[in-house]
Amino acid sequence: MGGAGGKIYRSVSRVDLTASAIEEEQPVRSWYLQRAKLDGSLIGQVPEMRRLYREQLKTVQLPLPRAETSGSNEQMIRILQWNLNCLCGIDGQHPQSASEILKLVEQSTADILLFQEAPAGPAQTWWYEPWRSSFPFREMRRLEDQLRKMGYTTQLRSECFSQTLLCSIFRVREMQHLSLDIEHSFRYQMDEERNALHAVLHFGAKEDQSDDHIISVYATHFHHENFTLDAQGVRRSEASVLLKHAEHAKGPVLVASDFNQARRQDYDEEEWKVVAAGLASVKQPEDDGVHQLFTEHNFRCAYDVARQRNWPISKAPPFTHWTGTTVDYPYVRSSAKRRLRRNGEGSFGWAQAGGRRPSKPKQAGHV
């Protein structure tokens, strides 16, 4: 997740919600959601939603916060997740430089990077517009090259159009690709299918051949079209395929992805009315069933179990997308030997039993 940084969820509000602008520092919620609660005509108005998103990001403070790890006897792993929208900006029409991304990555000191919508390129004739015309192929290469120089020598991509790029300072012990759209009938109506990359990463000494220092990571991106208004659509089916595979995964398991679905529990009643109306306008469900399915398979959303957060009010970040919603979530499952948790500021840690992207609003939109 990305797009801005710093004490990301505290800023000075400049949106005129009533007669006068609010100037004091306050816990941040999506400006769009707050405006739309008062003026329903704004719901689904993409240009205004994006304008408010851009303006709100300008108030974000840098540098990025870092989780406190001193004095801990736990192994900490930092995860950064970010939907890059093909490096084409919020609307897919404005190519972006790799420099700002690299700057935030360097500040985060993350061990594992998960970049959704990060195709290798170059752009192909069958790509959708405007990405086909806007995709900055050289900047994507520069991003990869500079990340290698920063120590992210492991670089792997999922095998589909909407590729997820996994980068890490850890070594790869095993990897597999799996198609997620094999168990539902909607695949014949889809313009593209989604894939997941499963990588077992080893962070112990080279000579260590045990499973004591591994983590299983799934790099993926669930489909933006659910094809139903209930929990029997595409995304739940994709989650089911992934979770069946994860039953046999080694070590603690991380699934940090753009799930393309907000959770009701992360909003107040009036905010959710706006979110629900927006989802209805694009014929998407209020609940696609994915969160419940992950919970039933013993995964926990890291936002829900965090010890610390750098945002107030809710468990999840206030938003990770220009729609004012949070659609990017890290789910974790412990292994039999270790208990995995997330502290909410970008670090994963685990300790012997018994004994996370810095989370930021992302600049990307959806393909």
Automatic annotation (TrEMBL):
Residues 357-367 have a biased composition (Basic residues). SUPFAM superfamilies: DNase I-like. It comes from the Eukaryota. InterPro entries: Endo/exonu/phosph_ase_sf. Gene3D superfamilies: Endonuclease/exonuclease/phosphatase. Residues 340-367 are annotated as: Disordered. This is Nocturnin. It comes from Durusdinium trenchii.
